[in-house]
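#structure-requests
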Amino acid sequence: MPMPAHPPKNPSSPFSSFRGHHVGIRVPDYDAAKAWYTEKLDFRVLQEWPYGELKLAYLCPPDDDNFHVELLGGPVPFPQEVLNDLGVSLQRGGYQHMCVHVDDVDAARAELASRGVDLIGEPFEIEDISRRLAFFRDPWGNMIELSQKLAGAGS
């Protein structure tokens, strides 16, 4: 089933300049996280800077300059629970995952597996949104979704 057309844009909104820019991910070990995202996912380091006791960085996907992951690294007094099940994660409030588009979920997932990335469950399709999806997580339990547009899908 193709996605419906987007609702009309609202250029008169005082928030019409809103655009996606980055998602922030809090990690206990900045250097390990930077290495994981750059080595396992081929992210590129755009900028690094200190903020108080933390080390921060903007990382960009391999071929996208418009979306960033902001790493916020330093000791975490209240680490999140690492979950092994997508369904269980949906029972929690707050941050759930970030999503990246891929051309082929299965090929991306196979490459992640070859790099030792922790995969969660099996790929699945949701016809209501015309997507094939799969999940994996970083070593600190932050879930990342792979999303592939199904053939014949609209937006």
